[in-house]
Protein 1
Amino acid sequence: MRSDTLEVTASARLYGDTHILWLAMPASYQAAKPGQFVMAYIGEHTDPLTGRALSIHRTRAGAQGPEFALLFDVVGRGTDWLARREQGDAVRIVGPLGRGFEPQPRVQRMLLVGGGIGCAPLIWLADRLTTEGREVTLLLGGRTAAQIFPPSLLPPDVEVIVTTEDGSLGRRGLVTAPFTELLPWCDELFTCGPPAMFEALHGLLRQSGLRKPAQALFEQTMVCGMGICYSCAIFPRRGGVRLVCHDGPMFDLRDIY
Amino acid sequence: MPAPSLDLGLTIAAGSKRELRLRNPVMVASGTFSNGLEFARRFDVDTLGAIVSKGTTLRPRRGNRTPRTVETPSGLINSIGFQNVGVSALIAEVAPVWARWRVPVLVNIMGETVAEYGRLAARLDDVDGVAALEVNVSCPNVEAGGMEYGQDPALAAQVVREVRRHSDLPMVVKVTPAVTDIRPIVTAITDTGADAITVMNTVPALAIDARARRPVLPTVFGGLSGPAIKPIALRAVYLAASATHLPILAAGGVSSGLDAVEFLLAGASAVQVGTATFRDPAAPWTVLRELTEWCEREGVRDLRELVGAARRRD
């Protein structure tokens, strides 16, 4: 949980209202894992006050040293400010934070399901898993084509299935349809997206009777990102309370629903 | 580190058997440092003046529904609802870690009844690692909670007497700004056996979601903290200082060394860094370093030169 002021190495609108920001990666991020996140602080003043929690989207070698990317929809003052950063600007970042995905070591067939901007951390996971020689199928769902991460930017070994609710790209409908078809195939499942999608996936998983590990990245209003403010509570169905930033953001779907 | 010529030390309950010595006047505010264990892995907690624990209740609490926080201009409204492990787990699992630290730890306690305050005090008395109590008579978050105690001098005094009856620990009492005049409360607390006073808790506040046409927080109201409340806290400290001879620990938007200086000038003897830590985990140490640098630059030898120096002497 250290604070670093990081240089922006590249910044671009990547697709639709979705922006990518590449930052110089400090050495302390070497052990970071897909599913972990950072807090990005907006401006030099205290308004807006709190950081924005954003998953690490990807890493790359970079010309001047390693870099990592944040991928985000421009939805408010914070993300608008971030999107207006240019090469050479600085952004204060605290991270890497939280518990990321934990793929089992010896399983082969990985199913990744991203809803909307929830694809951000799954891209890095897909990069990693294909590098390790595993089979990866990535389902990308969105309301419309403008919300779909460009499949051309993915490793060629990743099988990508796109669904849009308006049918403007890929199959018309929700990710739940291809999910149902691919569930028997996969060994392990990783997902990030809106809570309604998690609930649907969990329902289908239960119906199938298949006991497949299903790791999901949860979201909740975060303030500190480090387990000290207790803002980002999540209440597992079986009782108790967990903090998304500290105990998660990765939880097995079955531990929450 | 401070130059040898600069004395940053502070004593609470000076001359009594409860005397508590702080190496410097920079503390953390309850609820903004958890119980410190996460920080101890990354920072040298022993260089701070004191740590204040998360608000602790007799039984564990799950806290409120979400959202629990909402950002406002230079501020944060929270309604966490005292999620905490409860005093038994605190004593069994956390206090033994504190016992290995040199920095004193104050345990912030919150009861739902006067008797509960007494029971909490009794449980924590003589526990290794617990240096003092900070009694929360002012939290605006919990419906059945401390609000009423902190808003009435007689009720506040009742709590202070009950805690004192059950514990010989140094006792700090944290007051609320949600009163017409803070002075009668501060006087009552002073007269009944407190050793220091934390001024102040969060400011009761409301955020509304216009599109949904309802409050953002499920509890409707929450407590506002952060730079937005600093001027309110400065006034509260200034007023409180006229009503007590006890050390005042200032809380409310402290984010820099200069903020700390302003609070000392208004009459505080120490500051608690709170919401600033949510923006930067190193904030308490930054405040300490900047305060030290300011004193060196200004030729201050003893912080007591500053305490209350901005107060009118008429």
Protein 2
Amino acid sequence: MTEHRSTPDIDGPGDPLVSSAYRESAAERAPDALNRSVMQQAREQVRTRFFRPVAWLRPMAWAATIGLSLAIVIELSTVPQTAFDVPVIEIPASGTQVLREIEVPRRPEANSLDANSPLANSPETDSPADLELTPFGPRARKTIADDGRVTLQDAGSLHKAETAVPATSSVILMPCAGDIRNLPESWLECIKRLESDGLVDLADSEREQLQQAFPDFKLP
Amino acid sequence: MIDAIGLNPDDLSLSHAQAVAYAPAMDPHPEDSALMLRYKDGDVDAFETLYRRHNDALYRYLLRLCRHRDNAEDIFQEVWGKIIKARGRYQATAKFTTFLYRVAHNCFIDHIRRNQRHQNTADIEPDSQASPTDAPEVETERSLARRRLDAALQDLPEEQRDVFLLHEESGLNLDDIALVTGANRETTKSRLRYAVKKLRAAIDEPNRPEEEAS
């Protein structure tokens, strides 16, 4: 270590002879072990100080991750359960003729569809009547909600539009809709067609609604 | 800790930012306070420079104040440890030397309260600095004078020894020594005068009673 010894100020009652004698007597220097220990302590303290923000950020990152995960779980738990609980029924291709009402929640962009896609060539309309004859493939998947609305998700004939239509896009159908429900006879005829097509659950649902709408009508 | 010294913050000639910005660039021997401020900002080299300026003087001060080498080394580490830990709160409101010796003085006082071992007989021997050009008689006389001085220094009352050592080792003036020891200027001056008088008498007197006894 570099020797540094200040000259005392002369404003005090000092004595040059005493100072000189003292300096000849006192020539000790701090041991190297002490010097190394102090310098090591100084380095560690600086290192600790500059690493402190990183050590502080790590638990914060974990807390943020856990918080976001919990938020997502809570958000998912608040989604209506009907979207997940409705039964899924495999319907044959011929079943499409009894579907009366079609609702498309998210209509794909027309200009983004394949030119050969039937959806791309169809007119842009939300009218259930216009969508009534939309061709569905043999493996069309249908779900029935509590209110009788049917969700039908096609996996066959819409495959050409998959690049433009999101996977979650679905078609909600309501059989025996419109003028058919005005008369119990026509409604019952529709129900019978559903039964003949094997859509027993759908027919039962329609039957219950028919009974509620026309309590005096005697069902066979 | 610095506030305990009781200095006026308005005495600052440079702000923190100015001191940090200009000290390394303009002054090849930056002020102690500038070095400490650079260390406060993470510059370990600045602290090493500062440490090398003061480590030996502080060590001698503590060694002769404690009169016990192990105690002096313990206090020495404690002092620098406090300086290092206090760097985050350091403000250049006083001379760093005043700050350093104030901490050392307080650590010594705390040590006295904790441990009475310093009151035992001294276990340090004065370093010999014989000059090869001196005649043997002259060197012998100087060696005896150093021994007499060292013995007289150990015999001084603690307050007088403290003031004398601060005067010799720290380079502080009477006002700063008074600040370090917590006494007023006149008391400090009186203590130093008595200490120097006794030490001068020890140097001038070749035959002290204890030497005659030995």
